């Protein structure tokens, strides 16, 4: 179980090295996107509209921060992971965008396991409910798009330095810790 | 009898405190769990969680980015004083949001538009309960994370489905925990509402996990035994903190029960994230305050 310090954007090779149980710290630009952000990306793609950011090699953090506007700048107060399962219907789309890392909590299911293998992506579990600790690694809010959707749903562009620790829980080789745990637990229940 | 003195400033401080602290009962169980946990990954997660609580405390920041959904329980013996709380609570929530203690997360249910201040029809949800003869007003503010809501289930069971020795009911709970996996921010606490019809079971499930001290014992011996059995077995399923494995899956199981109709047994299972942002106080007419869930402010 290795510890990796990676700089964004990530390559296929960066991702393929990572195995479940490893720990990752990320440095560079991280985008947030959740329910309405994903829906907006989908709508934009269908309408042939350009996206506000380039997702190639990027990390999408399923999160909605608490931010405060001070003059023209945004100050990040706290940020933590939201439940990734809600974004499961977009697995294929996120793969096609060139996203390399999905950060969130709770993991994702079959569609994502397939997409992670096909597009060389990895799922990183952040510590749930640890919004102050995680925010400490974000040194700048570079901007936000789709603010009219509300603070949690906007696409935020964050610059982070050693963001983590993040646990690799769904690798690019078709493995999912969540899947393994579920199968084992259901066996225990059957045996009760 | 003197009048209840309740100021807006005081109510605002309670709301702010709920957002920036985790109640002592949850923390105490988390610390005990960390001492017993054997999985390295689970230990790392639990340590991060406890460290985060300390950081939020020091920096007076919201413990979690998601303020969750606010429900306030007001239990009273006479309506005097209650109107002030009803008036102050929504205003205090909007002010706390403006000051960065809570994220504006409340939206229109259908068009999903966000007013940007955590307000809306029915928010906060206030549950009033009249308790004849009670001389104090009990106020419990509870912000319950909504990732946790995604794992909740409701089922109208039958006598046959309950099974002998409640086997069917227990299996429903275990499967629900496994299906929820890491979604409800485990270690979770679980409220189970049993009885009435659908609406009653659902309300009981939230009330059980939001208003009881997570360290208490159910006064009903059968429910006490069931709560303990469910808790112990859930922690043998291996879901663990964040859903990545370990023996700390659940911090507490609390059951609320009402009678039901002979044809049915309504069951609601309600997850609470480990981040127990809540504040409980009993207000007395002489100005005295008695705090719930352990350590006071």
From TrEMBL, chain A:
This is Hydro-lyase, Fe-S type, tartrate/fumarate subfamily, beta subunit. Keywords: Lyase. Belongs to the class-I fumarase family. Pfam families: Fumerase_C. The lineage of its organism: Bacteria, Bacillati, Bacillota, Negativicutes, Acetonemataceae. The keyword Cell division does not apply. SUPFAM superfamilies: FumA C-terminal domain-like. GO terms for molecular function: hydro-lyase activity. The keyword Lyase applies. Residues 9-180 form the Fe-S hydro-lyase tartrate dehydratase beta-type catalytic domain. Signal peptide: none annotated.
Automatic annotation (TrEMBL), chain B:
GO terms for molecular function: 4 iron, 4 sulfur cluster binding; lyase activity; metal ion binding. Keywords: 4Fe-4S, Iron, Iron-sulfur, Lyase, Metal-binding. Residues 9-280 form the Fe-S hydro-lyase tartrate dehydratase alpha-type catalytic domain. InterPro entries: Fe-S_hydro-lyase_TtdA-typ_cat. It holds the Pfam family Fumerase. Belongs to the class-I fumarase family. This is Hydro-lyase, Fe-S type, tartrate/fumarate subfamily, alpha subunit. It comes from Acetonema longum DSM 6540. The lineage of its organism: Bacteria, Bacillati, Bacillota, Negativicutes, Acetonemataceae.
């Amino acid at each position: 179980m290795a510890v990796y310090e990676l700089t964004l954007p990530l390559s296929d090779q960066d991702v393929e090295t990572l195995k479940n149980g490893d720990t990752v710290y990320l440095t560079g630009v991280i985008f947030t996107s959740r329910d309405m952000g994903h829906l907006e990306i989908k709508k934009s793609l269908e309408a042939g509209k350009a996206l506000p950011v380039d997702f190639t090699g990027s990390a999408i953090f399923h999160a909605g921060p608490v931010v405060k506007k001070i003059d023209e700048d945004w100050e990040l107060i706290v940020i933590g992971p939201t439940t990734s399962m809600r974004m499961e219907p977009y697995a294929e789309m996120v793969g096609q965008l060139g996203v390399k890392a999905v950060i969130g909590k709770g993991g994702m299911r079959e569609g994502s396991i397939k997409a992670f293998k096909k597009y060389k992506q990895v799922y990183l579990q952040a510590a749930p409910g640890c919004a102050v600790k995680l925010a400490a690694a974000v040194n700048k809010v570079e901007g936000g798009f789709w603010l009219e959707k509300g603070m949690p749903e906007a696409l935020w562009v964050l610059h982070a330095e050693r963001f983590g620790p993040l646990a690799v829980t769904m690798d690019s080789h078709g493995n999912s810790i969540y899947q393994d745990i579920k199968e084992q637990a259901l066996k225990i229940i059957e045996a009760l | 009898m003197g009048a209840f003195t309740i100021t807006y400033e005081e109510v605002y401080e309670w709301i702010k405190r709920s957002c920036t602290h985790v109640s002592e009962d949850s923390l105490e169980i988390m610390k005990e769990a960390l001492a017993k946990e054997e999985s390295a990954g689970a230990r790392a997660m639990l340590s991060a969680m406890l460290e985060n609580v300390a950081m939020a405390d020091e920096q007076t920041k919201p413990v979690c980015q998601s303020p969750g959904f606010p429900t306030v329980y007001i239990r009273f013996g006479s309506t005097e004083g209650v109107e002030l709380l009803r008036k102050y609570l929504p205003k205090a929530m909007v002010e706390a949001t403006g000051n960065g203690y809570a994220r504006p997360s409340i939206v229109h249910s259908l068009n999903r538009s966000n007013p940007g201040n955590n307000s809306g029809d029915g928010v906060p949800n206030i549950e009033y309960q009249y308790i004849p003869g009670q001389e104090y007003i009990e106020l419990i503010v509870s912000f319950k994370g909504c990732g946790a809501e995604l794992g909740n289930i409701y089922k109208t069971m039958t006598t046959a489905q309950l099974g002998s020795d409640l086997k069917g009911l227990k299996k429903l709970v275990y499967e629900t925990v496994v299906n929820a996996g890491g979604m409800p921010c485990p270690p979770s606490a679980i409220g189970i509402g049993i009885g009435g019809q659908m609406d009653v079971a659902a309300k009981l499930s939230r009330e059980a996990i939001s208003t009881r001290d997570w360290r208490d014992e159910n006064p009903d011996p059968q429910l006490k035994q069931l709560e303990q059995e469910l808790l112990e077995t859930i922690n043998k399923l291996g879901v663990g903190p964040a859903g990545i494995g370990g023996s700390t899956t659940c911090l507490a199981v609390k059951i609320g029960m009402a009678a039901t109709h002979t044809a049915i047994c309504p069951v609601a299972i309600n997850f609470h994230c480990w981040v127990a942002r809540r504040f409980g106080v009993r207000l007395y007419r002489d100005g005295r305050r008695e705090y719930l869930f352990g350590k006071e402010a």
